[in-house]
Amino acid sequence: MIKVGDTLPDATLMEYSEVEGNGCSIGPNPVKVSEATGGKTIALFALPGAFTPTCSAKHVPGYVEKVADLKAAGVDEIWCVSVNDAFVMGAWARDQKTDGKVRMLADGSGDFAKATGLTLDLTGRGMGVRSNRYSMLIKDGKVATLNVEAPGKFEVSDAGTLLSQAKA
């Protein structure tokens, strides 16, 4: 499992864009993790799935609510990563009103989750292998803090916890 001090895996996530611009076409666009995190401080949180109850009611809204506070604490971008396809993440972004606040990034095949060692096997619930629920503060591509939830919990990966760590 990835730990504090490690460099993020060299993976490619996908981001759905509804507006063409800044070198992005409409539709899914690749986001190379190593390039996108270089020289930046990223508040990354990951979760088991788009449109799921805790993720939609608490996890994403908490980060949307604390965008200004996180930015004031030195965070350049906020990323939400889930093992879903880019189209689902795009629809969820519209539903959660994350535009300009949280980048909703798809880990469609779970490659990023597998590379970090932070997978969650939900095959018994019909969801396959997903990402565990966690948050991390990333500085220039390296893990500065890591908060991994126990199964079924939502206690340490919330926006308030990561904000406290960003301020420290």
Automatic annotation (TrEMBL):
Name the catalysed reactions.
a hydroperoxide + 2 glutathione = an alcohol + glutathione disulfide + H2O
Q: PROSITE patterns under this entry?
A: THIOREDOXIN_2
Give the Thioredoxin domain ranges. 2-168
Keywords in alphabetical order: Antioxidant, Oxidoreductase, Peroxidase, Redox-active center
What superkingdom heads the lineage? Bacteria
- Residue intervals passing through the bilayer: none
For whether the record's keyword set contains Oxidoreductase, the answer is yes
Q: What EC number(s) has UniProt assigned to this enzyme?
A: 1.11.1.27
| Similarity remark | Belongs to the peroxiredoxin family. Prx5 subfamily.
Cited function: Thiol-specific peroxidase that catalyzes the reduction of hydrogen peroxide and organic hydroperoxides to water and alcohols, respectively. Plays a role in cell protection against oxidative stress by detoxifying peroxides.
Protein name, per record: Glutathione-dependent peroxiredoxin
Q: Per the UniProt entry, what species is this protein from, by scientific name?
A: Ramlibacter terrae
